[in-house]
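Hi there,

I know you've been waiting on this one. I reran it after we fixed the sequence typo, so this is the corrected version. Both the input and the resulting structure follow.
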Amino acid sequence: MFERSRCRNGKQAFTLIELLVVISIIALLLSILMPSLHKARRSAKSVVCQAQLKTLISAIHTYAGFNADFVVPSYNMRGVTGSTSRPYDGWGPILDRDNYVSGNGELTNNPFVCPDTQDIPGVPFFRSGAKAGQAEGYMDWPAIVTISGSYARTIPRRGFDKLIRVAYWINGDNPTGLPRALQQGIHFTGSVGYGPNLSGQIMKHNRFADFKRPAQLVALADGFYSGKQEATRVMDQGRRIGYRHQRSDLYANVAFADGHVSVIKGDRFPRKHDEGISLEEARRDNLGGGPTLYSDPNRYLSEKKVSGRINQQD
């Protein structure tokens, strides 16, 4: 009886060699599966990001439905620059305050933050440009934005009693600093109230009805909002577009003015005609059937429209 028990137990035991073989097989399987699991995880985050962009652009359409077809401002301002007495509200806090989308000041459970957002501020205090990699971060709104820098601040008297962390870029005309000539409605939205400039112009709300190519007009994208439509590609210094997702190439998730969501590769994102971007380059980027930053690219990229125009952005 005793001998049979020892034999049975001996058959059930593993030798050291067998254990090493099993461990090696498990390690091999993990090495094969981990890249696929990592890829699946990143793909899932990208799907969540696209769903959030769909929610946000739908909320912007709903906002327009209750506000005379107005596009939500990138922010409201007075004058041509910010100050401690005149913080900018921001499109995220506006949608939150008015109960179109509920956000918060965190990186998680926040529809204004892409799941792949890095925990770094895109625009630290006293620095208005963004280094490479920081476009994968975020910006908190409302904020005091000046030529020297920006920092977050609530505006209780205007109903903004909490900070909203935003990790999506909005395609807005964002003049700050010096008075400059402006073209009303040139992008998806703008800094409503900017001015008066030297010509007495004050920026007003854009309207959805004025968009000539809403299915091509970029509205929102991975990144953070603080101007810089001319610096949108992967290698551009000071870019605000955050290429947080990767297939064979880096790409950004994008919501368009008509409400659909798609992607744009890092070397294909359209750029604005401005310092360093010639009219020829901007026309190549924005004309045709592809994505555009312009509400009416044929109009705003004509020789007549851009002649003599002065752009001053942070």
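Quick highlight: The chain has six helices and twelve strands.

Best,
R. S.
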